[in-house]
Design brief:
The complex is a heterodimer of chains A (48) and B (147). Chain A contains one helix and three strands. In chain A, strands 1-2 form a two-stranded antiparallel sheet. Chain A is extended. The two termini of chain A are 23 Å apart. Chain A has 48 residues and is of the alpha+beta class. Chain B has 147 residues and is α+β, with helices and mostly antiparallel strands. Chain B has a two-stranded parallel sheet with strand order 1-2. Chain B has a two-stranded antiparallel ribbon with strand order 3-4. The chains are: A alpha+beta (48), B alpha+beta (147). The interface between A and B is large, with 38 and 60 residues.
């Protein structure tokens, strides 16, 4: 894991496409999703 | 638990390195409504160094990891889910969100000093109930925490 990812540190404000059926998925930024609220970011292996 | 999160002023987002169509199918199969983001080119995975290198069967999956974030993306807790028991349960997440909410919601206790004054002032000045953000700012202003 990246050494900056520690409790008390700041998680990077990632921007990634959001999964949707069809072309041109919108890109979402974590800070925009989070707003002023707590948030859980879940990295998962996949559907298996 | 998604229903609880949706009405409790908390957020959740899922990220994997699978192709977008697989992620969409998975999200649909779960009946989930929160965002699922796709790191199909593994750029973020490399940036964060979260490759599960022991899995040589699938295409470079993520190490199952959950980050609990306070506002402004501040890391509150990290769950290393490589082993099943490292993954957070619903109750773990509930406790984390409770602890964070107690800290960041100035109106956590309606009977705390300044809270009722702020609420009544909001009613007078806004002519309506304040939003949660407005309410928090008013309380903090009353406590001298915000200029």
């Amino acid at each position: 894991m990246h050494p900056d990812l520690v409790v008390g540190g700041t998680f990077p404000d990632l921007e990634l496409p959001e999964a949707q059926f069809g072309p041109n998925p919108p890109r979402r930024r974590l800070s925009e999703i989070q707003g002023p609220d707590p948030m859980a970011v879940v990295f998962y292996r996949g559907n298996y | 638990m998604e229903d609880d999160i949706a009405v409790s002023y908390c957020k959740v987002v899922a990220i994997s390195a699978e192709p977008a169509f697989l992620v969409s199918e998975y999200k649909t199969s779960l009946g989930a409504h929160f965002p699922f983001l796709c790191d199909s080119d593994h750029t973020v995975q490399e940036q964060l160094d979260l490759l599960e290198y022991t899995d040589t069967h699938h295409d470079r999956p993520y190490i199952p990891t959950t980050f609990i974030l306070e506002p402004c993306l501040k890391i509150y807790k990290i769950y290393n889910g490589y082993w099943f028991w490292g993954r957070p349960t619903n109750e773990d997440i509930r406790q984390d969100f409770r602890a964070i909410s107690m800290r960041i919601r100035p109106d956590w206790d309606l009977q705390a000093p300044g809270v009722r004054d702020a609420y009544e002032e909001a009613i007078r000045t806004l002519g309506r109930r304040p939003t949660s953000v407005e309410f928090s700012r008013l309380i903090q202003a009353k406590r001298g925490q915000v200029k």
